[in-house]
Amino acid sequence: MISIFSFVLLLHVATTAANGLSLSATATTISLLSTHTINEVPIDQSTPVQQANKYSTSIGERIKNGESIIQIEDLVTHAECNYIIDKVLEQDASPTTLEKPGLVRLPTQAAAERASAANIPCAAPLCDDVDNLLHVILKRTASVMAEQIPSISKVLFNGESICELLDADQLKFSSREPAINIYTPGGEFLAHKDAQAITVLIPLSCPEQFQGGGTSFWSQDSRGHRVEDPTIILKPPSGTAMLFGGCVTHAGVSVTEGTRVVFVASFSSATEESPVIIEHRDIYGDSM
Description:
By secondary structure, the chain is α+β, with helices and mostly antiparallel strands. It has helices at residues 16-19, 49-52, 59-64, 78-90, 109-117, 128-148, 151-156, 162-167; strands spanning 9-14, 25-31, 37-42, 68-72, 103-107, 171-173, 179-183, 189-192, 198-203, 210-212, 215-217, 232-234, 241-244, 250-252, 255-258, 260-269. The longest helix is centred in the middle third of the chain and has 21 residues, at 128-148. The relative contact order is 0.19.
């Protein structure tokens, strides 16, 4: 249970140099007696996490309500990041008709099979080694959520074990996911909502390896991406997992120089009919 851990809450103003936030942001760092440090970043920077706690009683609820982004530091090692990047850049990555110039999405083998069955255009799937490693990373993410943030399972998956759902092939993923997204100059992912219980987004490239880029987010009370700039832009260190809810409008910021590689998986329980009200989904990115 999470209650057995010792929590050290540190309220601080983070800068780009400090922890990869492109905009100044207030975050709460939760140092747990385990391998990973978890940072909770409120999307609405005018609402500190302590204040948000008055309205939502758990991290799982704050994710569901689109209030917070959870960062898990060092979830993927530098060696794993570099290995995946080297392998995917060796692959013949031809974009499909769904991508704009500068973006290629390489699906896992299972994601490619699902896309083919639905007659959705899809790039060639990832090689066996990368495919297997991404499964290990997703399982690792699920394990950290279960051990350190159990409210995610309770609130977003009806108390079911995400690890067991993954093993039993009982997770429903967004189309062509899990996947590796490769951004080159001009590449971006337009603003959208994933409409799943949770999204796991892990940058594999170091921020120093590209210019521009990052992930932008809009708060729930924003008037929308057509009329307002993003509330916050995050560009965390490589290997840091970002977790957020399916009601959150977000976008992949255009890369101006270099190459940005990210791993993404948006999913819900396969038995959940409508984890996010689909009518509220903004489809300006990957609509398939």
